[in-house]
Each structure stands twice: as C-alpha cells, then as structure tokens.
C-alpha cells in the first residue's frame, strides 16, 4: 500500500471517528474531498482488515479491529503503571534486578525495571532492549501459553539459536521445559541468555485471563534463591489483580 493510500485511509478513519452514527459512502467522500471511487476502494480494504464495518444500506462505521488494538495499547500502558510500585517493593525485598517484559513477535522487550548498583548485575538490559523468547524466563512463559503447533512454527522461524552453552537449542528440550513451566506456574533462565546471570519469571494477566507480561527477577547465578519464588508469584498476582484479573473466574 502506497504512502498516499495510507494517508487517505487515515483521513477516512479520522472522519468516521467524528461520526456517532454510520455514514454513507457519498457523505464520506464529500467530507474528505476524496473521489467516490477512491473512497469506495479504500473502504473495501479497510473492511477486509476489520478496521471499518459495512452495515445495512451501505453505511460505514469504525470496525472492531480498532477496538482490539486500542485495548491492547491501553493494556500495555496500564500494566507498566500498575507494576511500578510492586516492582520497587520486590527489588527492596530481594535486592536484585526486577524486570517487566512484553512479547513482541518472536522476542520479549523490556519495558520497565527496578534495580540498583548493589544488585551486583554485570549487565542490566536497557528498557527497550529485546531478546529471543526461548532464551529468557519471561519468553518461556509466553511460549508455554502457545499451542504446540505455534511453538514448532517458532522453532522453524528462529532455528532456536543459542547464546551460551546452557541455551536450549532443540525442540524436544524446549517442549520439556515448557511443560515444566505450565506445571510450576513460573519459568527459569539458567544462564541461557548470558553466562553468570539467572532469572525467574511469573506471568501478569489482564482482565480476560490473557498473559500480558512477565515479571522477572535477574541476579548473578550464585545469588538467585528459590526462596524468592513465592514473593515473585504473589507480586505478579497483585499486579494482575490490579488489572482486573480474577483467578477464580
């Protein structure tokens, strides 16, 4: 799609957003200054993508895809805001680096962290940094939430490239690891992304029960204690509850 077409599509979406009721094709064309045939062609493409909905009598209104995308953006903004205070408390309790990460394609992206020089980490990954799903504790949470066919497709796309001698680079081993994640309710990174650094992660869920983010503790390998797992899980659960998640539902 050309830049000009994208600009025209955005103009049409903006015009539809101004209207409280469905709008006729000719009225949209007149309001935007676009030719009727051009308007019709672009609207058809937007209907296919569910950005626009065609209702009875040839009228148009904004589609459900925009609501889905808006909810996704809202959720991502909300999870960061809801996590800040609990992350600071978890860092204060453990003295170790606390990360909040989201899935982005075949990687996780770090969106927030709480840490200090006393954490003892050789490398603290910057906010906005990313890493492959299978090499991180949070990434494994997302992979564990997928169907087996989706995991196999991920393996085909990425080749399960390793970063250290501990990296999981075989499908059978990854499937075994993901089964354990599902059973335990949390995930580990045993020096798989970086030697000398271990992580544990618990999931953060939205009001629909969807895995939205991963809350992880990162520490020098010798400092990461399993005694911290319950407080990590309870902190992630607290954030999830703030976002409307109800485990009993």
From TrEMBL:
<protein>
    <submittedName>
        <fullName>IclR family transcriptional regulator</fullName>
    </submittedName>
</protein>
<dbReference type="InterPro" id="IPR036390">
    <property type="entry name" value="WH_DNA-bd_sf"/>
</dbReference>
<dbReference type="InterPro" id="IPR029016">
    <property type="entry name" value="GAF-like_dom_sf"/>
</dbReference>
<dbReference type="Pfam" id="PF01614">
    <property type="entry name" value="IclR_C"/>
</dbReference>
<keyword id="KW-0804">Transcription</keyword>
<keyword id="KW-0805">Transcription regulation</keyword>
<dbReference type="Pfam" id="PF09339">
    <property type="entry name" value="HTH_IclR"/>
</dbReference>
<dbReference type="InterPro" id="IPR014757">
    <property type="entry name" value="Tscrpt_reg_IclR_C"/>
</dbReference>
<feature type="domain" description="IclR-ED">
    <location>
        <begin position="65"/>
        <end position="245"/>
    </location>
</feature>
<keyword id="KW-0238">DNA-binding</keyword>
<dbReference type="InterPro" id="IPR005471">
    <property type="entry name" value="Tscrpt_reg_IclR_N"/>
</dbReference>
<dbReference type="InterPro" id="IPR050707">
    <property type="entry name" value="HTH_MetabolicPath_Reg"/>
</dbReference>
<feature type="domain" description="HTH iclR-type">
    <location>
        <begin position="3"/>
        <end position="64"/>
    </location>
</feature>
<dbReference type="InterPro" id="IPR036388">
    <property type="entry name" value="WH-like_DNA-bd_sf"/>
</dbReference>
């Amino acid at each position: 799609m050309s830049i000009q077409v994208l600009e025209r599509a955005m103009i049409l979406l903006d015009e539809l957003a101004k209207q409280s009721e469905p709008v006729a094709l000719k009225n949209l064309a007149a309001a935007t200054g676009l030719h009727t045939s051009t308007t019709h062609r672009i609207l058809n493409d937007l209907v296919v993508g569910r950005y626009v909905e065609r209702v009875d009598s040839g009228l148009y209104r904004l589609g459900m895809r925009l609501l889905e995308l808006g909810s996704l953006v809202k959720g991502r903004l909300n999870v960061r805001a809801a996590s800040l205070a609990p992350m600071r408390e978890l860092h204060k309790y453990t003295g170790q680096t606390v990360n909040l990460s989201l899935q982005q394609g075949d990687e996780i992206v770090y969106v927030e962290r709480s840490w200090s020089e006393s954490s003892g980490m050789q490398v603290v990954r910057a906010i906005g940094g990313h890493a492959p799903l299978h090499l991180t504790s949070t990434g494994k949470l997302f992979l564990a939430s997928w169907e087996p066919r989706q995991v196999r497709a991920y393996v085909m796309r990425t080749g399960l490239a390793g970063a250290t001698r501990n990296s999981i680079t075989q499908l059978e081993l990854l499937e075994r690891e993901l089964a354990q994640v599902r059973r335990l309710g949390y995930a580990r990174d045993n020096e798989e992304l970086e030697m000398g650094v271990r992580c544990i992660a618990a999931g953060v869920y939205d009001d629909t029960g969807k895995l939205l983010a991963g809350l992880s503790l990162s520490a020098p390998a010798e400092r990461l204690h399993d005694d911290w797992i319950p407080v990590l899980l309870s902190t992630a659960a607290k954030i999830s509850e703030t976002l409307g998640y109800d485990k009993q539902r």
